[in-house]
C-alpha cells in the first residue's frame, strides 16, 4: 500500500512540477528569487527566503509570511516538505494582517502542514485531537463547520495520504463562498463550510522547524460579495518591531540588561531590582503602538507591574498594576495569567488607549493628556516584577 501510494504521489508531484500554464487561469504566487508581493508579518529578516523557486523557512521564530493583498475565492496548489522529522507548519487562508492577541499566529483558517514524526509526541491514551495528514481548522476567533470526522471545529482527513520528511507533498486548496476543501497528493480529504472570515490574506507559517515550499500558484474565482463582518481587517501599515530571535533594533540597558530575554515571539523580563526600559533604537513622532502583555499569576497588582513607554517618556504612559501613569489598568481591570493587547495612539499631547483580551472582545477605551515630546523612542518598562511582552508593532500617524 505504501509503495502504491508513494508512486501515485510521485506522479502527482511530477505533474505539478511543470511550469504553471497561465492559460488555465493559474498564476504563480511567488517570483523565482525574491519575496515581492509578500509581507514578513512577525519574523526575523532571515526566517524566510527564496531561491530558484524554493521558499525556505528556518522555523524560527514562530510567525508568518503573508500576502500583500487579500484574496476571497480561489484554488491554490502548493508543494511542501519538512527538512526534519516532526516538523510543523501551515498554510493560512483568509487571515488577518497581524497576529491575534497573545499568540504569534494570524486569525483565520489553517491548513496544517505537519510531518508524521510529530505523532510521536502524542499521548495514545488521550482522545484524538490532531493528525499529520491534512487537518483543516479555524484559529483564534475564526469559525468553520468541519467536514467529516472532527474534534470541535477541526476537520480530520478521511485518508492518510501525506508523505514523511524529506519527501514532497502536494496540496490543492479550494476556497469558495466560505467553503474550503483540501486535497492531499491528489484526493480531497478534509475541509469545512460557513467559514468566517471568508476573505483575507494568505500566509505560510513558521513554527519551529525548517520547511520548504515550491510551485505555489493560484487561480482566483468570482467574488461572492461577502458582508463586511466576514472580511479580515485590512493592513494599516503596521511594522513589527521585534525579530523573535534577538534584540536587533532595540537598546538593551547596560544596567539590568541580563533581565531581558529574547524567547521566540515573546520578550520576557525576569524579576529583580527596577532597571531601565528596553528602548527601540529608532525614534518616532505621532504613532500608534500595539503591545501584548501577560503578567504571571502571582503578580502583585498592588504595585507597578508592567508598562508601555512612548516617545521617549521615561515613565510609562500605560501601566498595569497600581501606580502613577496617564492610563492605569489596576487590579479591578486585569487578571494575572491572561494576555492583554494594548493599542496606544499618541498624537501631540493626546493619548488614546484601547485594551482587549481577545480579538472579538469589546475593547476598553481610555483617553488622557501627556506632556509634549515631539519625538522619542518606544520602550517596554522594567518595574521590578516579571512580565512577558510580545507582538510589538508600530505605525506612524
State the main characteristics:
disordered N terminus, 9-stranded antiparallel beta sheet, Jelly Rolls, 397 residues, 4% helix, 31 strands, 8-stranded antiparallel beta sheet
Task: Please explain how this structure is put together.
The chain is 4% helix and 43% strand. Strand 3 (48-51) and strand 4 (54-57) form a beta hairpin. With 397 residues, the chain is mainly beta. The protein has one helix spanning 2-16, and strands at residues 27-28, 38-40, 48-51, 54-57, 63-67, 74-82, 88-95, 108-114, 136-139, 143-146, 150-151, 154-155, 169-176, 179-184, 187-196, 201-206, 211-220, 239-240, 250-251, 260-263, 266-269, 278-284, 287-294, 304-309, 318-321, 327-329, 339-347, 350-356, 364-369, 376-380, 387-396. The radius of gyration is 22 Å and the shape is globular. It starts with a helix and ends with a strand. The strands form five sheets. Strands 1, 3, 4, 6, 10, 13, 14, 15 and 17 form a nine-stranded antiparallel β-sheet that branches.
- Which percent range fits the helix content? under 10%
* Sheet of most strands: 9 strands, antiparallel
Beta-strand residue fraction = 35-45%
CATH architecture label of the largest domain: Sandwich
Number of strands: 31
Kindly report how far apart the N and C termini lie. 60 Å
Per CATH, the class of the largest domain reads Mainly Beta
Structural class: mainly beta
Overall, the morphology is: globular
How many helical stretches? 1
Radius of gyration: 22 Å
In CATH terms, the superfamily of the largest domain is Exo-inulinase, domain 1
Average pLDDT, to the nearest integer? Answer: 92
What CATH calls the topology of the largest domain is Jelly Rolls
Number of domains: 2
Unreliable stretches: 1-21
Amino acid at each position: 500500500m505504501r509503495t502504491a501510494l508513494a508512486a501515485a504521489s510521485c506522479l502527482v508531484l511530477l505533474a505539478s512540477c511543470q511550469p504553471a500554464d497561465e492559460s488555465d487561469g493559474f498564476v504563480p504566487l511567488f517570483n523565482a528569487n525574491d519575496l515581492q508581493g509578500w509581507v514578513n508579518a512577525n519574523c526575523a529578516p532571515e526566517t524566510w527566503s527564496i531561491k530558484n523557486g524554493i521558499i525556505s523557512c528556518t522555523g524560527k521564530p514562530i510567525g508568518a509570511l503573508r500576502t500583500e493583498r487579500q484574496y476571497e475565492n480561489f484554488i491554490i496548489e502548493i508543494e511542501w516538505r519538512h527538512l526534519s522529522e516532526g516538523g510543523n507548519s501551515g498554510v493560512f487562508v483568509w487571515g488577518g494582517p497581524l497576529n491575534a492577541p497573545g499568540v504569534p499566529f494570524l486569525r483565520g483558517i489553517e491548513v496544517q502542514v505537519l510531518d508524521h514524526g510529530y505523532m510521536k509526541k502524542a499521548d495514545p491514551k488521550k482522545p484524538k485531537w490532531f493528525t499529520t495528514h491534512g487537518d483543516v481548522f479555524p484559529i483564534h476567533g475564526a469559525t468553520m463547520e468541519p467536514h467529516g470526522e472532527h474534534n470541535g471545529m477541526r476537520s480530520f482527513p478521511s485518508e492518510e495520504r501525506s508523505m514523511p520528511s524529506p519527501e514532497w507533498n502536494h496540496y490543492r486548496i479550494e476556497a469558495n463562498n466560505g467553503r474550503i476543501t483540501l486535497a492531499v497528493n491528489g484526493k480531497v480529504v478534509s475541509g469545512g463550510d460557513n467559514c468566517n472570515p471568508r476573505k483575507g490574506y494568505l500566509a505560510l507559517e513558521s513554527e519551529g522547524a525548517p520547511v520548504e515550499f515550491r510551485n505555489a500558484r493560484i487561480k482566483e474565482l468570482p467574488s461572492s460579495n461577502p458582508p463586511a463582518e466576514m472580511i479580515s481587517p485590512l493592513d494599516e501599515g503596521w511594522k513589527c518591531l521585534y525579530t523573535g530571535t534577538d534584540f536587533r533594533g532595540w537598546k538593551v540597558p547596560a544596567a539590568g540588561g541580563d533581565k531581558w530575554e529574547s524567547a521566540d515571539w515573546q520578550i520576557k523580563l525576569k524579576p529583580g531590582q527596577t532597571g531601565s526600559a528596553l528602548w527601540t533604537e529608532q525614534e518616532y513622532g505621532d504613532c500608534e503602538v500595539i503591545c501584548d502583555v501577560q503578567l504571571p499569576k502571582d503578580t502583585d497588582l498592588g504595585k507597578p507591574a508592567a508598562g508601555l513607554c512612548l516617545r521617549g517618556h521615561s515613565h510609562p504612559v500605560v501601566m498595569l498594576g497600581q501606580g502613577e501613569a496617564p492610563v492605569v489598568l489596576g487590579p479591578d481591570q486585569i487578571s494575572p495569567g491572561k494576555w492583554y493587547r494594548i493599542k496606544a495612539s499618541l498624537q501631540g499631547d493626546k493619548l488614546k488607549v484601547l485594551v482587549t483580551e481577545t480579538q472579538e472582545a469589546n475593547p476598553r477605551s481610555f483617553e488622557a493628556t501627556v506632556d509634549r515630546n515631539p519625538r522619542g523612542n518606544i520602550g517596554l518598562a522594567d518595574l521590578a516584577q516579571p512580565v512577558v511582552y510580545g507582538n510589538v508593532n508600530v505605525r506612524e500617524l
